[in-house]
Recover the amino acids of this structure.
């Protein structure tokens, strides 16, 4: 049986401690390459999840129509939590616009929307599992972390509606390109942070995700961020989640007894570079 972290405040406190000890600056084009910041959640998926990983490397299952079956309970990707720059290819830098660098430097951990039990948005993950349910026309993500949230990906050939109201997870439409699920998402609000560091975005955000299941035990994905309001060019993040066995997503509401957010100290980045 897994045991939860007490609530999202524990995640926020862990992240604040990591950031306080780290000497890693936010960076933009032309700045020196920094060392990575350990992600929230202890830098690795929750310790209790490690023993639940499926060890088999057999072929990925397929649905009745021959497509890869992405269904399953998946562990989190650490590089999609604390600092998304860790999910870039080695040597790459986040192409932040000057205002986005300034905002990232000024943000405080206690102001992180995720620490106040609001949705993490995309591409950010939490230190808890998520479940994928795949059907021929709809793929659903059930997200355990922070608050019970869900995400719908329509794979029925439909297009994005016009005049979308901005939301935390946007509007997602998926297509299959061979064995890869390609998900196009627009219609985001600008309320969530990309990570615990505080990397921002705007409502111009457009995300394209590519999901593959290279074997039975792993879900691999690429996430391309295109936000001309906050970044000078698109960039791509890379991640992988392990399949978990002998467990299920748990009921978890971080707003229950979440009393200490106002007492979290520390910036979203170190004060000195």
């Amino acid at each position: 049986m897994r045991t939860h972290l007490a609530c999202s405040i524990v995640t926020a406190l862990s992240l604040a401690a990591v950031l306080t000890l780290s000497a890693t600056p936010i960076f933009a084009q032309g700045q020196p390459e920094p060392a990575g910041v350990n992600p929230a959640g202890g830098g690795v998926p929750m310790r209790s999840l490690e023993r639940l990983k499926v060890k088999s490397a057999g072929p990925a299952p397929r649905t009745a129509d021959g497509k890869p079956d992405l269904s399953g309970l998946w562990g989190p990707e650490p590089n999609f939590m604390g600092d998304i720059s860790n999910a870039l290819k080695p040597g790459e830098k986040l192409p932040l616009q000057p205002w986005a660098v300034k905002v990232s430097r000024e943000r405080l951990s206690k102001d992180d929307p995720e620490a106040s039990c609001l949705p993490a948005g995309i591409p950010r993950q939490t230190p808890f599992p998520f479940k994928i349910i795949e059907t021929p026309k709809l793929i659903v993500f059930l997200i355990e972390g922070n608050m019970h949230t869900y995400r719908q990906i329509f794979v029925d050939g439909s297009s994005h509606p016009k005049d979308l109201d901005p939301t935390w997870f946007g509007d997602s439409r998926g297509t299959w390109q061979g064995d890869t699920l390609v998900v196009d998402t627009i219609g985001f609000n600008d309320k969530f942070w990309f990570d615990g560091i505080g990397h921002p975005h705007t409502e111009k955000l457009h995300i394209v995700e590519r999901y593959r299941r290279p074997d039975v035990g792993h879900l691999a994905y690429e996430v391309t961020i295109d936000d001309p309001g906050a970044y000078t060019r698109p960039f791509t993040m890379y991640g992988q989640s392990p399949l978990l066995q002998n467990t299920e997503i748990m009921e978890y509401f971080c707003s229950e007894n979440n009393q200490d957010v106002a007492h979290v100290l520390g910036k979203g980045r170190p004060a000195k570079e």
